[in-house]
Amino acid sequence: xxxxxxxxxxxxxxxxxxxxxxxxxxxxxxxxxxxxxxxxxxxxxxxxxxxxxxxxxxxxxxxxxxxxxxxxxxxxxxxxxxxxxxxxxxxxxxxxxxxxxxxxxxxxxxxxxxxxxxxxxxxxxxxxxxxxxxxxxxxxxxxxxxxxxxxxxxxxxxxxxxxxxxxxxxxxxxxxxxxxxxxxxxxxxxxxxxxxxxxxxxxxxxxxxxxxxxxxxxxxxxxxxxxxxxxxxxxxxxxxxxxxxxxxxxxxxxxxxxxxxxxxxxxxxxxxxxxxxxxxxxxxxxxxxxxxxxxxxxxxxxxxxxxxxxxxxxxxxxxxxxxxxxxxxxxxxxxxxxxxxxxxxxxxxxxxxxxxxxxxxxxxxxxxxxxxxxxxxxxxxxxxxxxxxxxxxxxxxxxxxxxxxxxxxxxxxxxxxxxxxxxxxxxxxxxxxxxxxxxxxxxxxxxxxxxxxxxxxxxxxxxxxxxxxxxxxxxxxxxxxxxxxxxxxxxxxxxxxxxxxxxxxxxxxxxxxxxxxxxxxxxxxxxxxxxxxxxxxxxxxxxxxxxxxxxxxxxxxxxxxxxxxxxxxxxxxxxxxxxxxxxxxxxxxxxxxxxxxxxxxxxxx
Length: 605
Fold this sequence. Notes:
The chain is an alpha/beta fold. It contains 25 helices and ten strands. A four-stranded parallel beta sheet has the order 5-2-6-7, sandwiched between helices. A two-stranded antiparallel sheet has the order 1-10. The chain has a two-stranded antiparallel sheet with strand order 3-4.
């Protein structure tokens, strides 16, 4: 068994200037210590396996349930709370072991950390998926890869979830096994486990981005997990997630939304600007719009519509044979789900113009690529395309269903515009005072309607809406508000693949709950300084840093995290009031998946 080099620190980050804010006010780093001895780790794993054997295996446990079990386990062993993160990984390992075993070896993906390599001698280079190991034998990576490949595994040496989720959603793997530090495991595995994708992981023994170490015996035992059927099949949203993602693949998108002007444009959707010079001018708008539809995004809204429809039709899509059931979802339902994503993408095009955001999906925003006028026109085209798609289902769905869904989409569209309009008017006003309640009302208009429309569209296509309307409205309101607050917090993190600009709310002069919380609690001189900094929209790193200092002084990150917890709890209560068990379970999943309640890393210094 490999041991941690003496110069390494235990797997915690309390010495870092970054503060990880949790719902109970604790530093998340204080809960991520690796138990120091192999015997203690073995003792926790053994107790975790015993506990998991008593759990309901028919559904994935929510994060808060796993946390509760982990706390009880540690209390029973009289161990400190600082081992909580590690214990939760051990519990997940025990819970999902039989489900991973039920997946053939060739359908498993092994995720390894590049920090196990020797940086001084490693000759490997990187591509978009990770490290291109040359199997030179100079570190443990080549040995682990060789053992996995002998069994038929697909292996990836990388960190982070985008590449992993792409492989899984593309249908190239059905189970994930990983080795990483606790921070990466929390970021990468939480949503995967929550969705019911069989996964197991072994935490590294120490922090750091180079020359770390792992319990190699445990890793090998994980890789050697034999293939055998599981006695109980855990429900999974994987098949519905794949369906939502695959609707945006070129062939399926073209089938569901046939082109009016021929085939895809040259250089379309490969990260480069659409080669509009090679197209008939009339075809250009459609080509740019379709390219933008496929450019990125989590596709959470179409997933919601598909999953709600499935839940109210019995929830067969989450069962063991769910792939077959999901394949039977009518094209009309898929096209309605596509339509709401099309409306969402149109709002992003217009929002980027109004805020003059430079990037979207890791590449220049449309107005930066093609000019503002063309981008506005593409956004308008997407709105028309969405309504055309909805209207075209009148022969596949009852007329009253199509009319009701159209009305819901239109209501969501107008409410979004009201919220965006209020933001724009505030931004251009001379008086910049803002209360937290004002900000939350604006969020309820800007973000909640799209979630409500996605939910109610799925409900209406499965049956009547009235039994669910009020609960869905309350749920959507709190989900949307919490989601927008998380976006505000994300705006102050360094890891922003979507827009690449830290503190973009400051640069754009936008009203946010962070600003409102600061104005509520700072003294008058600091408030005047903050408002002056917000008014000056020049891209100045020093100005942005000063706003961050004032935000930290007012403790807005902690307070915003408390607001997220509050709205999460209220959305949960709205879901709990529903009688339909598959729908109730789905709403809890959406809540945890969309809000992603992992601690946010934001500097308070």
